[in-house]
Design goal:
single chain; alpha/beta; TIM Barrel; eight-stranded parallel β-sheet; 12 strands; globular; binds flavin mononucleotide
């Protein structure tokens, strides 16, 4: 009889997924830009904040629910837009969406998804956001905006940090050929670059233009400075995701948790601030909330869940995070998300 509890934390999920995935797919998902300093820093920087335990706060009934852009979620953890879930499981985004919907959280579907985004919207009754770029072809951007609305997507996530391709050395070494998302039109004969992809010439005017073309909330993703938070707000964005793309685009940036306070200060309470990058423990989630994030996203862990056990694997990843968030909230004397404030954390001096 197998009595193994299976992976008990997100690191063990990654280890098991690594055994199951082809090396080049594992490397594509786990890897980052050049020396992967930012990948590592996103993780390590969470350690530079310590929790301040509090006792006797009646934590008998914990409520992890909160809202993101007015949508109620069962916990402050959302699934980040990531291309090609089929790399990790044949059911791909369909499995992820069912897990997110039954758990009561939001899936942001990538522009590079391996599922047609309109079909996916029919797979469950949950909350979906669509991620896109300011495409080279404005007509294509316009058509995605209206198709997203029509299909029932509730917000648009515009990824702004991908105007220039990164250098990912694992992929170069593995001669990795990235597959094209199924939602892009096929390239015409001799058409270079193929349609899709972020426009390297895009400016703040393009973000303003996107906002003017839709009545869905616009979430600007890939912001790492207070200056850019202010410009996002001026362009009409409803929320910002503090993100360095999980260290996959520009290496040598600060960790996202390190720039969160700067972003929150620049938002002046006007727009919601979300965060992704290296979130692997419930304590990371609580620290991000204490520093002013409304919620966080996980990227790579959703692939580890899919690779280990499809829909059930993603559900288990979310359950583990929920259990760890509960422990952290209880031991810091915070029964609700609203009660998590800046006094939950303190900057830990270097050892
Ligand atoms: C395999 C993979 C594919 C990704 N594809 C996209 C994408 O298509 N669009 C996007 O905005 N971000 C993409 N991301 C970045 C995630 O949205 C997110 O910013 C990042 O994964 C968060 O860091 P974490 O993986 O440490 O949780 C991708 C990330 C991974 C790991």
């Amino acid at each position: 009889m197998n009595t193994s509890p299976g992976p008990i934390n997100l690191f063990e999920f990654e280890a098991l997924a690594k055994e199951r995935l082809p090396k080049e797919e594992y490397d594509y998902i786990a890897g980052g830009a050049t020396d992967e300093i930012s990948v590592e820093r996103n993780r390590r920087a969470f350690e530079s904040w310590a929790l301040r335990p509090r006792v006797l706060g009646n934590v008998s009934a914990l409520d992890l629910s909160t809202t993101v852009l007015g949508t109620k979620v069962s916990l402050p953890v959302l699934l980040a837009p990531c291309g090609g879930h089929k790399k990790a499981h044949p059911e791909g985004e369909f499995a992820t969406y069912r897990a997110a919907a039954s758990f009561g959280t939001i899936l942001a579907v990538s522009a590079n998804a391996s599922a047609p985004f309109e079909e996916l919207a029919k797979a469950a009754t949950g909350h979906l956001w669509l991620q896109l770029y300011s495409f080279r072809d404005r007509e294509m951007t316009k058509s995605w905006l209206s198709r997203a609305k029509e299909a029932g997507y509730e917000a648009l996530c515009i990824t702004l940090d991908s105007q220039w391709p990164p250098k990912r050395e694992r992929n170069i070494r593995n001669n990795y050929k990235q597959t094209r998302g199924v939602n892009y039109p096929k390239a015409g004969p001799g058409e270079t670059p193929a349609p899709g992809g972020a426009d390297p010439a895009a400016t703040w005017k393009d973000l303003e233009w996107i906002k003017s073309q839709t009545n869905l909330p616009v979430v600007a993703k890939g912001i790492m400075t207070g200056e850019d938070v202010e410009l996002c707000a001026q362009a009409g964005a409803d929320a910002v995701i503090v993100s360095n793309h999980g260290g996959r685009h520009l290496d040598n940036t600060l960790a996202t948790i390190e720039v969160l306070s700067e972003a929150v200060a620049a938002a002046k309470g006007g727009i919601e601030i979300l965060l992704d990058g290296g979130v692997r423990r419930g304590a990371d989630v609580v620290k991000a909330l204490a520093l002013g994030a409304k919620a966080v996203f996980i990227g790579r862990p959703l692939f580890w869940g899919l690779a280990v056990d499809g829909e059930q694997g993603v559900t288990r990843v979310l359950e583990i995070l929920r259990e760890e968030i509960e422990i952290t909230m209880a031991k810091c004397g915070r029964p609700t998300i609203a009660s998590i404030d800046s006094t939950v954390v303190v900057k830990a001096p270097p050892l």
